[in-house]
Write a structure and sequence with these properties.
With 216 residues, the protein is mainly alpha-helical. It has helices at 2-6, 8-40, 45-59, 63-76, 84-109, 113-121, 126-156, 168-177, 183-212.
Amino acid sequence: MNVLSDNFAMFREGFIGTVELTVLSALLALVLGTLVAAFRVSPVPALRVFGTTWVTLLRNTPLVLLFLAVTLGLPALGLKGWDSFWLAVLALGCYTSAFICEALRSGINTVPVGQAEAARSIGMTFGQTLVQIVLPQAARTSIPPIGSLLIALAKNTAIASGFNVTELGSVQKTLNAASGYNIYMIFLWIAICYIIITFTISGLFRLLENRLAVAR
């Protein structure tokens, strides 16, 4: 128990850092994932190619490699001055957006084609049909997989500790380097912190799923 009481400020800072990293990366992933999903079902060939390339590259790239590409590649391109925290948000958000895109696209495929055809028959554009008719229905079926993806995102934030970002992974590394603490107790408290975060995400998405459920 001493490991928590003696280092409570460090645990608190790491917990808050992980929560902030998860929330901001999730928002970026949801925005990008929705946009790329729209590209993938777009009638414009160039947009479909862009969406397919985005998903293929990011889904098949290790997250650590993406972190390296962002932290080393952006400064090499002249984009200097970015804080390591925001670089981590960019890497995590872009990586997760590829999976969000596919979850949404699967939901889009469950919407009957006749609804889109009916919308076009009354003069609605592709964008109007997607935003007003298709995506609201697709979102309902996509909520459970998106919730699972955001839980995975919360756990993936641990990689950011290797890139000078303050979060729970960095707390574990710091305490492991210190003497006098039981390594199993360190891992136990870190695990409890992650469980709190993931259970919160799971509960929020369960409430959202129940709220948006369609009565049958």
